[in-house]
Amino acid sequence: MGNGRRIRKFLSLSAKVMIGLLLIVDVYPIIWMFLNSFRTNNEIYANPIGLPKSFDFSVFVEAWVKADFGRALFNSFYIAFFQVVIIVAAASLSAYALTILNVRGKNIIYNVIVSLQVVSGQIILIPLFALMRDMGLLDHLWANILSGAALSFPLATMIFKGGFQSIPRELYESAVVDGCSDMRFFLKMVFPLAKPTFSSVVIYHALFSWNEYLFALTFLRSAKNRTVTTAIQVFFTQWQANWTQLFAILCLALIPILILYIFLQKYFIAGMVAGAVKG
Amino acid sequence: MKKKGVKAVIPYLYFLPMAILLAIFVIYPLYSLVATSFTKWDGLSAKEFIGMKNYVKAFRSEKFWYSMKLTFVWTLLSILILQPVGVLLSVIVEYVVKRRRASGVMRVLFFLPMLMSMVAIGLLWQLIYNPSLGLLTSVLSKLNLIDIMNPPNLLGSRSTVLAAAFIPTIWQWSGFGMILTSAAMMSIPSELTEAAAIDGAGKFSQFFRITLPLLMPTIFLGMTINMIGAFKGFDMLYAMTAGGPANYTTLTSIFIYKLSFTENKFGYACAVSVILILIVIVFTMIFNAAGRKIDERFT
């Protein structure tokens, strides 16, 4: 009996150690990144893992200025904002027509939209590039906004459709009898009832747009149009040897999302799961 | 009569904004992709129709087949590793760790890498793998596992680069698999496991006989998501290795990008894109069919 207890104690202790190790391996790269952004190049060259001697924030300012990071943040925000507005407006209206309104051929329309999901930005990158050039949109933020929104429609429509399906149709039918217009019903009933779905779509697609790289790399060639992802990548090729600043720019890229995540944790996770499950 | 016709059209207007943007930015490019794949085009001068030559060229090209092989290996690794690691993390967080606060903190920490863009992940791991100053070299040399004077360059040699490049993907996406699994675990009615507990089933058999089967659809869903993500696998690799050294990490997606934007072989690149999307479609159909089977069996 005493032996059994000792074995169990040993097992639980070793489980704790294993979990602790796993956590360290998982989180340490990010901690390393933050710590080293406060250490000088000489300190890093002498010993890549160590604690900073002081917390000097001027390196962040330097990296910010060199990368023109304010501009990159603005561009990323601009793209994400308008993209999400377009996605939410267009996809929610389509999903509304697909679930609640009287439309013939719902299944066909829905299947066409869903089947477009296999098309990724990578597959149609070349014709999109040529199209943007012909439309005069190359090196213009709206090239990314419009193409990114269009490619996100299938998934967003699926998420919205899933959310709207729980709204009882009797509600709509009685509202119509009372003379309520379709648009009014959408704004006054569907939107308030499906708020969680809307927030999932916003979070998922905002995060997706914020982290987008391929279109930013291909369509936005000039320095003034860099987004956060291309700005940090260019920064890495320009300042290869300045490790302190490389760490600092990575931190700068993570901090805005980290702050949002801390405040909106539940919505983040719900949004990611919704996006994945419907995808 | 006419008024009724107009009224029946109105609901279709709700599709209009989406239909216009899809037509311009997805469907037309898709058509253009196929059309261009039968031409020789440098991106600037007029397209010259050459029939199936680009496809023949691809099937005869060693580089193309090598990129396909890499894409296949990368996809297979993604399907087989990412979601199972996520399930493992989820089991640790939800089952092994007893204190709820600790579970909550761990969930947040394991999810943390998901907040970084794949580009940032690629760049950070470039620093981690740096042979002279990287985190890995320092840790391994402090543990006396490697010779500090002659550290391995994991991203620089053919034998290690693919595995080394895949590890950051595990680091990032296992957190996603965990969230997905945990969400599904929470939706399992607790009566089921409680009933099994009353029947004398231990925690172990509760998990394997009740929870795990109920999780199967979710696990498969995670695998499908990782399969689709793997075919895209561009951002992180391009930022970390740019397809190198030589072309040892040039997945088909990177191959296409280089063909078009560094070699100006746009027609050829379009043909390779068409082949890739056909493969993606086949894989997606297989996975969807399998997913339906699994849904039927386990729910």
Topology-level CATH name of chain B: MetI-like fold
Q: How would a textbook summarize the main sheet of chain A? A: none
Estimate the strand proportion of chain B: under 5%
| CATH-level-4 superfamily name of chain B | MetI-like
The helix/strand class of chain A is mainly alpha
- Walk across the major sheet of chain B and give the strand order: 1-2
Name of the CATH first level of the largest domain in chain A: Mainly Alpha
Query: At the first level of CATH, what is the class of chain B?
Result: Mainly Alpha
CA-CA gap between termini of chain B? 49 Å
The helix/strand order of chain A is: HHHHHHHHHHHHH
Radius of gyration of chain A from CA coordinates: 25 Å
Q: What is the helix/strand order of chain B?
A: HHEEHHHHHHHHHHH
Written overview of the protein:
- The complex is a heterodimer of chains A (279) and B (299).
- Chain A has 279 residues and is mainly alpha-helical.
- Chain A has two domains: 57 residues; 212 residues, MetI-like (MetI-like fold).
- Chain A is built from 13 helices and no strands.
- The longest helix of chain A is centred in the C-terminal third of the chain and has 36 residues.
- Chain B is mainly alpha-helical and 299 residues long.
- A two-stranded antiparallel sheet of chain B has the order 1-2.
- The termini of chain B are far apart.
- The mean pLDDT of chain B is 90.
- Chains A and B meet through helix 1, helix 4, helix 6, helix 7 and helix 11 of A and helix 2, helix 5, helix 6, helix 7 and helix 8 of B.
Short description:
With 279 residues, chain A is mainly alpha-helical. Chain A contains 13 helices and no strands.
